[in-house]
C-alpha cells in the first residue's frame, strides 16, 4: 500500500519556545497510504511536531510541505483547502461540549459542504457506525460518554470530511488494553478502506507493532531513526534499545 | 477530473447505469440530486446494474450515495447490482453496506410553541424552588463546616482564606473607591441642582449622608462584588467540577465545602463590610467635593451639617447589612459553581445565573432589612 509519494514532508524544521529549542532541524516524510508511528520520550516534542505541521504552533526555520505545497507559501484560501484534506484527533478528544455527538460529527460538514439535512444525518450516522458506535449514542452529549467512546467520536469527527491525512495524538492513551487493541484495529481498517495516510503520535508499543508501517523516533529534538519495526528492534542505538527492548518492550515482542 | 455523473442505458428489461467522475464530498451536493433523479427515472426497471469501473475517486460520501441508490431501488422492487468494483473501492462499498440499517429514529418533533412557552415557564418556576433548596443545603453544609472549624480552629484554611481576602478585598479597593466616589458625587450634584429651586441646598447633605450610609454604599459594593468575585467563584468551582477536581477532593476524604466554600465565603464576609466602609467614605468625600466646588458649600459647613444629619445607627444600618449580603453572594456563587455540568455552555449559563441571582437576592434582602430597621426604629 505504501507508495513513494510523500504527503507530508518536513525539512530541517526548528521550533523553539523562548530559548528552549524543542525541535532541532527535524526531517521527516509521511508517505501516501502509510501509518507512521511517531515515538519519543515524554516531553520530547512529539505533539509539538504534530501541532506545528497542522499550524497551531509557529516554526522558526525549515519547510513543511503537505500534498507537495509549502504551507508557508499558501494564501488563506489555499491553506483552508489543504486543511480540509486533513483530520485531527486530539489527545483529549476536544469534542465541542455543547453539541451532541451527531452535531459534533456534522460540524465540519455543515461548515464546509452545503448538503441536505437528510444527507448530513445519514453520513454522520454512517461515520459513527464506521468507528464502531451505536447510533443511539448520536443524541448524547460528550459529557455523558466514556473515554473510549469520546476517542471514537473524535475519530469520526476527524474523518467527517473524508480527509487524506489523519493526525492522531496518542489515540490509545487512557484506553484499557482491550479497548486500545480494538482502536488499533479500527484505525487499521479505516486506513485500508478509506486509503488514509496516518500520522500517529503514540507511546503504545502494542499499537506500534500492530498497525504502524513505519516508525519515526524523536530524541533530543531530532529524528534519529525512521523505518519499520524490525529495523527499530535491530538497532543498536542506546535509546532505541531501551525503548523497544526494555522490560515493557520485551513483554510485547517476546 | 471530470464532473461526477451517472449515465444510463436501457437494454431490454435491464438498465445499465455507469457512475463516472469523482464521487467525493465536494461533488456530494450535485450527486445527491443526480441520485434522487436516477432513482425516480428508473423506478420501473426490474434489473439494474450499477457500473463503477469508470469512477475516478470514491469517498464515504459517494459510496453512501451509491448505497442509498441501491437501497432506494431495492425498496421499489428492482434488483440492483454493483459491477466493475475496483479492489481499492471494494472495502468502502462493503463498509457502507452495513451502516444505517437500523430504522431511522424519528427526530423529536418541535412542540406547539404555546405549550413550549408554558413548559418553559413551569420549569423556570420549579427551578426557583429547586435552587432555594440547593441554597439551603449549602447553607447547612457551611454551618456544619463552621461548627467543625470552631471546634477545631486549626482546620480553618488560613492561607486560602487570606489569599481569597486579597483577591476579593484588597484588589477590589481601587475600583470600589472610584465607583462609589463617582456615585456620591453624582447624587450630590443632582441634589444640589434640584434642591436649589427651593433654596434647600443644605438638605443635600442630609440626603447624601443618609442615602450613602444606609443604602447606596453597601448596595454598590455588593453589585460590584457580585460581578467581580461572585462570577469568579462560580467559574472557578464550575471548572473544577468539570475536571473532576471536586470529586478528587471528596475521594481524599476532604469536604469540598470546608476546603473550597468556607475560605471563599469567610473572605467575602470580611471583605464586604470593609469595602462598604471604604466605599461609603469615598462616596461622602465625592459628595463633599461636589458641594464645595459646585454648590459653594465649604467643607466646614458640610461636615457640621453631616454631623447633625446622621447618627451612629445610620452608619450601623449599612454596616450590619454588609456581612449578610456577602454571605448571600458567596452562597449563590458557590451553589451555581457546584451545579455546572459538563459543557462550556453550562459554565457560561451558571456564571450568568450566579451574578443575576446574587444581585437580585441582595436587593430582596435589602428590602427585608429596610422593613426590619423601620420596625425597630433605626
Summarize the structure.
The complex is a heterodimer of chains A (254) and B (378). Chain A is α/β, with parallel strands linked by helices and 254 residues long. Chain A has helices at 46-53, 76-83, 101-112, 117-130, 147-158, 177-194, 205-211, 229-234, 238-245, 247-253; strands at residues 6-17, 20-31, 35-40, 61-66, 69-70, 86-89, 165-169, 197-201, 214-219, 222-227.
What this model shows, in words?
The complex is a heterodimer of chains A (254) and B (378). By secondary structure, chain A is an alpha/beta fold. Chain A has two domains: 1-85 and 165-172 and 196-254, Rossmann fold; 90-162, no CATH class. Chain A has helices at 46-53, 76-83, 101-112, 117-130, 147-158, 177-194, 205-211, 229-234, 238-245, 247-253, and strands at residues 6-17, 20-31, 35-40, 61-66, 69-70, 86-89, 165-169, 197-201, 214-219, 222-227. In chain A, the strands form two sheets. A six-stranded mixed beta sheet of chain A has the order 6-7-8-3-9-10, with helices on both faces. In chain A, β4 (61-66) and β5 (69-70) form a beta hairpin. Chain B is elongated and about 110 Å long. The model of chain B has no long low-confidence stretch (mean pLDDT 88). Chain B is 71% helix and 8% strand. Chain B has 378 residues and is α/β, with parallel strands linked by helices. Chain B is built from twelve helices and five strands. In chain B, 37% of the residues are buried. Chain B starts with a strand and ends with a helix. In chain B, α6 packs antiparallel against α7 (203-242) and α7 crosses α10. At the A-B interface, α4 and α6 of A face α1, α2, α3 and α12 of B.
